[in-house]
Amino acid sequence: MKEEKFKVINFIRELIVYLDKYLENFPRKDMEIKTRVRNLSYDILEEAYKVNATGENEKIQNLDNIIAKIKVIDFLLNLCYDKQIINLKRYMRFGEKLDDILKYTIGWKKSIKQKNGLG
After folding, report:
1. Which domains can be identified in the chain, with CATH numbers?
2. Integer Cα distance of 100 and 55 in angstroms
3. What is the CA 105 to chain-centroid distance, rounded?
4. Cα gap 14→20, rounded to integer Å
């Protein structure tokens, strides 16, 4: 579980850095999307740290929150691609980063469930 925990946090950090770098030239009319993506990425980081500080039942809920927020970010980035705010290469790179976070979050959740016999 420790490996998933640290990898998830590291992947979230990488996502935040990448978002800050490549979402800088947003059109003014779409600034709300940029703000929402950025805020959700920080929310995901906060949820990951909460998992480390909560009881077993709350851990699963926090991990579910991370998964849900990743899906919202993915939707918003897809919207950015559809509106041609970001190109295909960036969209794919964002997707890779989100997939890494999702994969390790799900693994983290599974390891908690197995540890607690929740299968």
Report:
1. 2-115 (1.20.1440.60)
2. 25
3. 9
4. 10
pLDDT tens-digit profile of 77-96?
Answer: 999 999 999 999 999 999 99
**Phi then psi for 85, rounded to 5 degrees?**
-80, -35
Q: At what angle do helices 2-22 and 31-53 cross, to 10 degrees?
A: 160
| pLDDT at residue 1, rounded to an integer | 47
> CA-CA distance, 64 to 50, in Å (whole number)?
12
What type of residue is 95? Answer: G
Cα(37)–Cα(6) distance, integer angstroms: 22
pLDDT in tens, 18-60: 999 888 888 999 999 999 999 999 999 999 999 988 887 899 9
Question: How far apart are alpha carbons 3 and 7 in whole angstroms?
Answer: 6
